[in-house]
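agent> Task received from the user: take the single chain below, predict its 3D structure, and emit structure tokens. No templates, no multimer pairing.
agent> Plan: (1) validate residues, (2) run structure prediction, (3) serialize to tokens, (4) report one or two observations.
agent> Step 1 OK, no nonstandard residues flagged.
tool_call: predict_structure(input=
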Amino acid sequence: MTTVVLQDSDATRRAGAVLAGLVAGGDAIALVGDLGAGKTTLVAGLVEAIGGGAASSPTFSLVNEYPGGRLVVWHVDLYRLEREAELVELGLDEVIGDRRGICVVEWADKFSVLPPDHLRLDLAHDGSTRTLVATGTGPRGQALASLLAAELLGSAS
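)
tool_result: status=success, residues=157
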């Protein structure tokens, strides 16, 4: 487990862009962190780099779909959900694992929605500086975590 320091929001967007170059159809990504930690900023960089256009927070829509790029990006935000029963309405079972795209879930620690093999990104902030810790929960998630950490640490030097 490696901690990567992201100096500002631009660095957080770049981390998302780096991740965009690593993901493949069917990948699932958990984003965990407090408000303001950079979850949506990272997704904005990822979506833009994949070619899906400008991303925005799905806090009120709960799921945003960006179909215009190399992969479809389903961007899910569980922040406003209070009960597990509400998950059924999101239709996550239809998009998680779909090879046409990737599913990125903010506040993924609220409910167990991701498959056993996924990438988990823990983001934290202290003023303008953020940290990112990438871990994987299965072979694909671990490979993505290692590749992402190596790419980000390599670009920081």
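agent> Step 4: summary for the user.
Helices lie at 9-20, 39-50, 92-95, 139-156.
agent> Done.
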